[in-house]
Amino acid sequence: MLLGENWVDRAPQMDVRDPQDGRLIDRVPKATLLDVELALSVAWKARRIARALPTHERVQVLSLAAELIGGRQEMFARTIASEGIKTIREARKEAARCAATLRLCAEEARRLGGEIVNFDQRPGSEGRIGYWTREPVGVIVAITPFNDPLNLVAHKVGPAIAAGNAVIVKPHEQTPLSALGLAEVLREAGLPPGVLQVLTGDGTEIGPALVSDPRVRMVSFTGGVGTGQQIARLAGLKRLAMELGSNCPTLVMDDADLDLAVPSILSGAYWAAGQNCLHVQRVLVQDAVYAEVRSRLVEGARGYRVGDKLSEDTDMGPLVSEVSARRVETLVQEAVTAGATLLTGGTRDGAFFAPTLVENVAGDLRLYQEEVYGPVTVLERVDDYDEAVRRANSVSYGLQGAIFTGNVNLAFRAVRDLDCGAVIINDSTDYRVDGMPFGGVKDSGLGREGVQFTVREMSEVKLACFRVTPA
To answer: How high is the pLDDT of residue 469?
Structure first.
């Protein structure tokens, strides 16, 4: 792991295993509380180095790192696919996105500035002139998930560097190798030692010490609601940025272009085996087109090829563990026992779970209310737009929503009516570019990611006011 200014080995260690067959890929150190204290001490000192790094050097580091990742895309893709849950084709897209994310960070480093303030807007404030600028917050702890083990790390580390911060990354226990690879690239690109550290280990053991320390001025976390709530209780008075998942609804109106809607929904439902906060979990379809949408989705789901992640022919890989697959299996079985209709899928083989479609799911069931985090999508028949919106908003999450319609007025109404951080029109909820504001409402989190917005979250406004005395 990258601890202090050096790559450090430790005993004991943690196994990194391929979730599809359990084979050992690598071993990483299991950081201790002593390691946490060392990392915090180094970051506290390195924050001054990061702050003093000129803009052109931040730009150079981030730009060169993007270039290096682009040149090693296949290597990173194989790491992502081996330690995680993505197929090799999905992993290549993530590696390419990581390079693009870092390029965006370099651009935002150039733009980070301020504005002039007109103090004479109030009587008696004549003779004053000033401005505000943005300064780094200091030390940031970034805690990242398994589903995007490279690009989501870049979404936290890149903006932290662009804004002049020191950052400690705690990657997910099951997917630390991609984060370590990114750190190696950033060091190679010229990032000063100590500005970035990567601690591998058990989050339950070292996480509380990291997030509660007063030297840490911001925690950026992507993960589950329960862990997010625990971090909020422990963190104290510091900035929190949290993306806590969702239960995304996609509305299909009777005037929708089904040739556009169905492939988008299928991709959003089964990308990364549904282990994605933008996963299409509920599809609310107007009655007139419900039968056709259901038929097309069932046919598409049955055509998905599930298997070896490294095979070019595979469409969908496993869940992150057999435990996770059993949890998804339980949610589906509960719904079916309560009267839901299983249209396709519902079967498990170890950590693999078949692409699944379920209808007639009662609104109070866990499969309907919670984040399933697996390849399961619920179909609902609705009479009209108002019913669709009411059902879409009936859960405690609100990350992204989507609507397929040819009616521009209805699209604008959906933007207004859906309780979520983003509304996607004529695409599924599983749409994101790395420069857009990204985040949700309700239990989906706090703040906004997306490079431009993260850089602002990771900086503080400072005002300067000069009183100019008459000559």
So the answer is: 86
Tell me what pLDDT residue 62 has.
98
Kindly state the tokens that stand for 123. 């009587």
Using CA atoms, how far residue 227 sits from 42, 205, 223, 375, in Å, is 26, 13, 7, 23
407 burial type by CB count under 10 A (0-12 exposed, 13-18 middle, 19+ buried): middle
Beta strands 356-359 and 376-382: pairing type? Answer: parallel
CB 106 within 8 A of CB 445: no
Q: Between β-strands 397-398 and 441-442, what pairing exists: parallel, antiparallel or unpaired?
A: antiparallel
Amino acid present at 214: P
Catalytic site residue from 277, 359, 380, 420: 277
| Residues 166 and 30 reside in one and the same domain | yes
Question: What is the predicted pLDDT for the residue at 470?
Answer: 81
Q: Is 243 assigned a catalytic role?
A: yes
pLDDT at 349: 97
**Domain co-membership, 188 together with 262:** no
Is the model's pLDDT at 209 over the cut of 80?
A: yes
Q: How deeply is 278 buried, as exposed, middle or buried, from its count of CB atoms within 10 A (0-12, 13-18, 19+)?
A: buried
Nearest to 151 by CA among 448, 432, 439, 401: 432
- One domain for residues 279 and 355: yes
Q: Which band of pLDDT confidence, cut at 50, 70 and 90, is reported for residue 402?
A: very high
**pLDDT score of 334:** 98
Between CA 182 and CA 106 the distance in angstroms is 16
Q: What does the pLDDT average to over 43-68?
A: 98
Domain that holds residue 97: 2-244+444-464
> Is 277 annotated in the active site?
yes
Residue 319 to residue 374: CA distance in whole angstroms = 7
Share of the chain above pLDDT 70, in %: 100
Among residues 90, 108, 243, 322, the one annotated as catalytic is 243
Query: Is 471 contained in some domain?
Result: no
Place of tokens 């909020």: 232
Q: What's the CA gap between 448 and 200, in Å, rounded? A: 26
Instruction: Give Dmax (Cα) for the chain.
Output: 85
For 167, other C-beta atoms within 10 Å of its C-beta total: 27
